[in-house]
Amino acid sequence: CVYSFSKYFGATGWRLGTIGIQHKNVFDDALSSFSEEKQCQLDDRYKTLTPEPRDIKFIDRIVADSRSVALNHTAGLSLPQQVQMAMFALTCLMDS
After folding, report:
1. Per the domain annotation, does 13 fall within a domain?
2. Which contacts qualify for 21-27: CB closer than 8 Å, 24 or more apart?
3. Is residue 3 part of a domain?
4. Largest interatomic CA distance in the chain
5. If you write DSSP's letter for every residue of 50-73 in order, what string do you get?
6. Terminal Cα-to-Cα distance of the chain (whole angstroms)
7. What pTM did the predictor assign?
8. Would residue 1 count as lying in a domain?
9. Which of 69, 66, 61 lies closest to 31 in space, CA to CA?
10. Which domain covers residue 61, as residue numbers?
11. What is the pLDDT of residues 4-20, one digit of tens each?
12. 1 in helix, strand or coil?
């Protein structure tokens, strides 16, 4: 069950989805064909996950990036959205 402020209050909200890709896919092929400069940029981005960041599959990079977004939300870095959702919730508590 997913509870959605966006559906309840008619506001634009976060979207849920599913991604499925083959073990052998064009995304991993594209990552391996990047220039050395671009590879080094990606290495810096994912080096905290493994000693060999170039071996990380595309789908695992998506998972890592989505976890980073979630951590930013729990750290309060999505303040405007949190304030808006709090105001929506407060309207349900107000006496009419």
Report:
1. no
2. 21/58, 21/59, 25/58, 27/58, 27/59
3. no
4. 63
5. -S-GGG--HHHHHHHHHHHHHHHH
6. 29
7. 0.58
8. no
9. 61
10. 25-93
11. 666 677 666 555 556 77
12. coil
DSSP string, 15-45: --------SS-HHHHHHHTS-HHHHHHHHHH
Residue 85, number of CB atoms within 10 A of its CB: 16
| Main-chain dihedrals φ then ψ at residue 87, nearest 5 degrees | -65, -40
Q: Is residue 86 part of a domain?
A: yes
pLDDT tens per residue across span 32-49: 999 999 999 999 999 988
Report how many domains make up the chain: 1
C-beta neighbour count of 27 within 10 angstroms: 14
Do you know the residue count of the chain?
96
